[in-house]
């Protein structure tokens, strides 16, 4: 049985909506209780890709509100709260209980509530004489957003900036690492698996892996262990592998333009929580949902845009043919005389036609939706020459450079300021050697287009630190590392990661290639130096590969710290489909970012380091 994160999280939420009572096979509680649901903004984001309003009604939820809105009392009705364990939320619950807004309070926290907050809750409700209204308090371990069966996000914003900020102190870095570990722990608790953890040495990936290992070890020793009653997984001898990476492992994927359908829709039209709003006719807007329930999205998400356009056309023609068939069978169009003798045959045709109508209507809605989306995309592609950006960036990565006239042609051509900035950064990342004069002409071209160059200069800085590290011997290396550490604080990992990982030589992403090697579990120079943590093994054996970690692994969870995207998600899913027997990969990240959102974070880092358009030119020379 494959790990299905979406299904597991949905089951946990349905149980929670049914006051944490067991749910019967039809997915509802045995006795229906009408109730009110109160959530905060974060938990609303967890619910929205999984549960629709009509599903809420099915589970007896008649009203639902955000916790920070003013609400009127509703007597004799229980309330289910689903909120993050924060001080503000706890104070609001105390206030609600003391005003007796609802009959009973079933409190569900999205992750484990810290002891001090629990004590505040007890004290506050005791003092206001409302403790009897608090029926139950549950830690739900659901603090992550599942977008597709194999795709999740922790919804933690700006972690790339926070982890690479030169001014960040140890305490701040530890807090961010703790937060990421908390989110990953929730994912593993929901799946009820304790994986074997692998990661590259150094940097945020090792910090998170080592802290998660410790958190799992501590938890496995506790009395109410979440991993003992893990359904079907306890008996299966094979555990999944959790591979943890940091965005600097392969910076380019966060920045590049991609020409496949799913990444394009996300990057250009801003798909958020599986929802999308595009301009409609007559100046209005149209909203669409794109998730696993849309067969076209599932089947064609990884195709290049022109192939998707052809596929829409094909589906439309097939639909028209099927409608003609139905019309013909029911005597709607071909004017055939109604033959009274074949009454039974005619009735049967009519019944078939009536039965096929809902399916045809549904197909037409899907075709219309994707026609709409593709039309808006096409407009953007033409206006910004996105096909040319995607192709040239791809060529640059494969060839390790680009002709100067081509380079400046793109920067002076079509596209938004951010398109040009992304292209310039891709040029930096993919160039094998840095030609100072060429880099300066790129900077000049960006300034000519009034582009803020902070992100470009930040990547240039990382790159200039990276180059000497790859070539010098270890004695002088440590001095450079000391110097870089002073300059950079925490992002030293980016510096020592080496140039190789900033770049994928063939077009299989470095991430996908590495995950493939880790799942294989055979000796491989690319991953032999990777650390191993096994929370179920004695402490002494962790950290180095040992014999009980023999692959191949059937299932992997791949986690990207500092922002992921649909390009990586698509690449990993393709890897899975290519393999026999079929493997299974879940992809997760701290947050899902478009190229623009990620470059904004790079710009912020550039500004924090005093680089950028506003800074004097001297500051930007190395």
UniProtKB/TrEMBL annotation:
<dbReference type="InterPro" id="IPR001619">
    <property type="entry name" value="Sec1-like"/>
</dbReference>
<dbReference type="InterPro" id="IPR027482">
    <property type="entry name" value="Sec1-like_dom2"/>
</dbReference>
<dbReference type="Pfam" id="PF00995">
    <property type="entry name" value="Sec1"/>
</dbReference>
<protein>
    <submittedName>
        <fullName>Sec1-like protein</fullName>
    </submittedName>
</protein>
<dbReference type="GO" id="GO:0016192">
    <property type="term" value="P:vesicle-mediated transport"/>
</dbReference>
<dbReference type="InterPro" id="IPR036045">
    <property type="entry name" value="Sec1-like_sf"/>
</dbReference>
<comment type="similarity">
    <text>Belongs to the STXBP/unc-18/SEC1 family.</text>
</comment>
<dbReference type="InterPro" id="IPR043127">
    <property type="entry name" value="Sec-1-like_dom3a"/>
</dbReference>
<dbReference type="InterPro" id="IPR043154">
    <property type="entry name" value="Sec-1-like_dom1"/>
</dbReference>
């Amino acid at each position: 049985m494959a790990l299905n994160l979406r299904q597991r999280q949905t089951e946990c939420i349905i149980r929670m909506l049914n006051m944490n009572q067991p749910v019967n096979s039809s997915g509802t509680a045995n006795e229906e209780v009408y109730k009110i649901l109160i959530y905060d903004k974060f938990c609303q984001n967890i619910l929205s890709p999984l549960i629709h309003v009509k599903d809420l009604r099915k589970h007896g939820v008649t009203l639902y509100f955000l916790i920070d809105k003013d609400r009127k009392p509703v007597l004799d009705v229980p309330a289910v709260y689903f909120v993050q364990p924060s001080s503000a939320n706890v104070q609001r619950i105390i206030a609600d209980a003391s005003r007796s807004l609802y009959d009973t309070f079933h409190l569900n926290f999205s992750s484990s509530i810290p002891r001090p907050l629990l004590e505040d809750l007890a004290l506050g409700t005791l003092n206001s004489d409302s403790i009897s209204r608090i029926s139950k308090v549950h830690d739900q371990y659901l603090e992550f957003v599942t977008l597709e069966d194999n795709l999740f996000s922790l919804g933690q914003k700006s972690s790339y900036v926070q982890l690479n900020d030169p001014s960040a102190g140890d305490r701040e870095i530890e807090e961010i690492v703790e937060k990421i570990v908390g989110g990953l722990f929730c994912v593993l608790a929901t799946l009820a698996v304790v994986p074997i953890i692998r990661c590259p040495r150094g940097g945020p990936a090792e910090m998170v892996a080592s802290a998660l290992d410790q958190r799992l070890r501590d938890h496995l020793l506790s009395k109410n262990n979440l991993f003992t009653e893990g359904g079907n997984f306890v008996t299966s001898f094979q555990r999944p592998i959790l591979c943890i990476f940091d965005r600097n492992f392969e910076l380019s994927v966060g920045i590049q333009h991609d020409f496949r359908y799913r990444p394009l829709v996300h990057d250009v039209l801003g798909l958020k929580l599986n929802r999308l709003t595009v301009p409609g006719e007559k100046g209005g807007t149209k909203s669409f949902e794109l998730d696993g329930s849309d067969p076209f999205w599932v089947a064609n998400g990884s195709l290049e845009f022109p192939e998707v356009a052809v596929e829409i056309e094909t589906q439309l023609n097939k639909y028209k043919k099927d409608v003609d068939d139905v019309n013909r069978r029911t005597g709607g169009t071909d004017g055939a005389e109604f033959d009274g003798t074949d009454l039974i045959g005619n009735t049967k045709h009519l019944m078939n036609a009536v039965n096929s109508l809902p399916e045809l209507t549904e197909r037409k809605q899907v075709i219309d939706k994707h026609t709409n989306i593709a039309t808006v995309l096409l407009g953007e592609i033409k206006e910004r020459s996105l096909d040319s950006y995607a192709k040239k960036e791809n060529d640059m990565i494969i060839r390790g450079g680009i002709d100067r006239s081509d380079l400046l042609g793109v920067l002076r051509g079509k596209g938004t300021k951010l398109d040009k900035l992304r292209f310039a950064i891709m040029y930096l990342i993919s160039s094998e050697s840095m030609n100072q004069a060429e880099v300066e002409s790129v900077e000049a071209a960006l300034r000519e287009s009034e582009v803020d160059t902070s992100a470009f200069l930040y990547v240039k800085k990382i790159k200039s630190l990276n180059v000497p590290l790859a070539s010098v011997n270890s004695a002088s290396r440590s001095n450079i590392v000391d110097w870089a550490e002073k300059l950079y604080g925490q992002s030293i990992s980016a510096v020592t990661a080496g140039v190789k990982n900033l770049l994928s030589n063939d077009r299989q992403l470095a991430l996908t290639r590495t995950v493939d090697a880790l799942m294989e579990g055979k000796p491989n120079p690319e991953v032999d130096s990777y650390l191993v943590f096994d929370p179920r093994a004695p402490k002494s054996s962790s950290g180095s590969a040992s014999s009980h970690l023999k692959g191949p692994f059937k299932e992997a969870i791949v986690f990207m710290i500092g922002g992921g995207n649909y390009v990586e998600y698509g690449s990993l899913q393709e890897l899975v489909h290519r393999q026999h027997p079929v493997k299974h990969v879940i992809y997760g990240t701290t947050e899902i970012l478009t190229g623009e959102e990620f470059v904004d974070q790079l710009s912020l880092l550039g500004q924090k380091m005093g680089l950028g358009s506003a800074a004097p030119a001297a500051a930007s020379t190395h």
